TrEMBL record:
The lineage of its organism: Bacteria, Pseudomonadati, Bacteroidota, Cytophagia, Cytophagales. It comes from Thermonema lapsum. This is 2Fe-2S ferredoxin. Its cofactor is [2Fe-2S] cluster. Belongs to the adrenodoxin/putidaredoxin family. GO terms for biological process: P450-containing electron transport chain.
Length: 109
């Protein structure tokens, strides 16, 4: 089963259900995650920074491609509400601008 590891949330590991976006899987694991537009790909609030495993993600959605063209998503960034992990392990960081104030972002010691 594919796995998402959020490095700056203490290495939190989320098992990925097939066919669901990263955001849907994160929410199913009861992890708070910023998604101002409700997961519709209309903002960049749910952005992730890819550390490793990005090649195992679904291709960028039209919404992500638009943000990439606008310079609002870098080559190592994706929207959690738009991408699907198809296999393996994906390691990510929550960018500073997408962090929630009530969570403590840190690396596992």
């Amino acid at each position: 089963m594919p796995k998402l590891v959020i490095e700056n949330l203490g290495g939190l590991s989320v098992e990925i259900q097939e066919g669901k976006t990263l955001l849907q899987n994160i929410q199913a694991a009861y992890v708070d995650w910023m998604h101002p537009c409700g997961g519709k790909g209309r903002c960049t609030g749910c952005k992730i920074q890819i550390v490793s495993g990005g090649e195992q993600l679904s291709p960028p959605s039209p919404q992500e491609q638009r943000f990439m063209t606008q310079g609002r998503l870098r080559s190592n960034e994706r929207l959690a509400c738009q991408c699907i992990l198809t296999q393996g392990e994906l390691r990510v960081l929550v960018p500073h601008e997408c962090q929630l104030p009530h969570l403590h972002y840190h690396f596992k010691k």
